[in-house]
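B., you asked whether I could sanity-check this one before it goes into the benchmark set. Here's the sequence:
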Amino acid sequence: MVSAIPSWSDSAQYAKLSKRTSPGDVTTAMSSSEPGLHEFAALISPAASNSIEAMAQRAQQITGHHFGKTISLYVPLYISNHCPGGCSYCGFASDRELPRRKLGEQELDAELATLKNAGFEDVLLLTGERTEEADFDYLHAAVSRAAKVFHSITVESFSMTVDEYRNLADVGCTGITLYQETYDPELYRELHRWGPKQDFSSRLEAPARALAAGLRTVGMGVLLGLADPVRDSISLFQHVEGLRRQYWQAGVTISFPRICSQLGGYAPAQEVDDRSLAQLIFAFRICLKDVPLVLSTRERPGFRDGMAGLGITRMSVASRTTVGGYHTKRKEDSGQFKINDERDVEAFCETLRKKGLEPVFKNWDAVFHDAEVLT
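And here's what the prediction gave me:
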């Protein structure tokens, strides 16, 4: 059932290949009609950093061909910050001193109504790891309520069993987002000090369980800054390709979260600057032509504006990382991480339109799925 799992030791071999890449290899990789892991390793190499403008042009051409001049928008809604986990890099870790809360039914309905009135049709529900306060039943009920309001409901939460993912799909969940954080198993154990997320293999295999259960999309990514970004990106590429081969009828998206300021003060061990992140995004776009690439409000406005349409096709907007915060407009200093793009929906959409890009709020794939069910 489980798709091909990337090997951390294999990533070392491709990382060596990346370091040996020549400028000619980069040119060949960019023009390949069927780019794969070798080409990807070349495009994230030091040699490719001198060709970043050419990579940007190629990425923009591919993006326009496969996605047109549109940017799909979604909004994250934290429904609980209860968490038993000890993730070193997370503002919600159980040893952080912050008010713990979850949305009750009336609060959730108010948040959903506020987001609906703002024009959103694509909502990501987030929780911490599984707790008594916010367990599977709580998440299941929240998805069921949200699915009555929105066309697309995805969740970013704890890893689950196939049956649990199937139950979420049955009440309207269309997909999950689940970052491996890092594919380095030793570092993973060090960073996850306690809690259920310590289980590296369970986390690694969760996207395959979700797709096997019938969910339509899975969002992948690594938390850039934790480990060697080259090796982590190579492993991520392998993981995505394995899932796409086994679950060809489903969809995969890739996100590029970098560590932001958060309660606990974890500092990145491997700094990933803007130029390196842009190169990484271009490499994924050139090698995975039809995969939606996602950029969140972790990033500053100028960088987000520049990357829209240059590989990036899906973005969050007007985000809050506190529990709720849309209906009540609560702005506590206890979010999971610091938001760097605080523009409201109107301002962000106006920026996109000035770039010749059209913001899209509705997930049409979810609408087609509803029609299939009805027929």
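One thing to flag: The first strand starts at residue 70 and ends at 78. Otherwise nothing jumped out at me.
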